[in-house]
Amino acid sequence: ATRALLEAGKQRLLIDMSRLEYISSAGLRGILGLVKALKACAGKLAFCSLQPMTAEVFRISGFNAMLTVRDSRQEALAALAG
User: Fold this and answer.
1) Which part of the chain is the STAS domain (predicted)?
2) Can you list the pairs that 44-47 forms with residues at least 24 positions away whose Cβ atoms lie under 8 Å?
3) Tens digits of per-residue pLDDT, 22-35?
């Protein structure tokens, strides 16, 4: 689905993680692939509303340091707009 958005010229993506309770290493690899694809087209990516377990995985893996992660959808949208 995200690849189709990129092919359609969408360069700013917001991923709402509010319903995701767990993310595996395969999911993290998928995110890294998306980050790489967006960098290639000067795109932006933001995440919001992480559940506690997912937030902990992001923190431990260092994703918080290299990705835009915000508590709310509004904050993430503002980060994408800036």
Assistant:
1) 1-80
2) 44/11, 44/12, 44/13, 44/68, 44/80, 45/12, 45/13, 45/14, 45/15, 46/13, 46/14, 46/15, 46/70, 46/76, 46/77, 46/79, 46/80, 47/14, 47/15, 47/16, 47/17, 47/76
3) 999 999 999 999 99
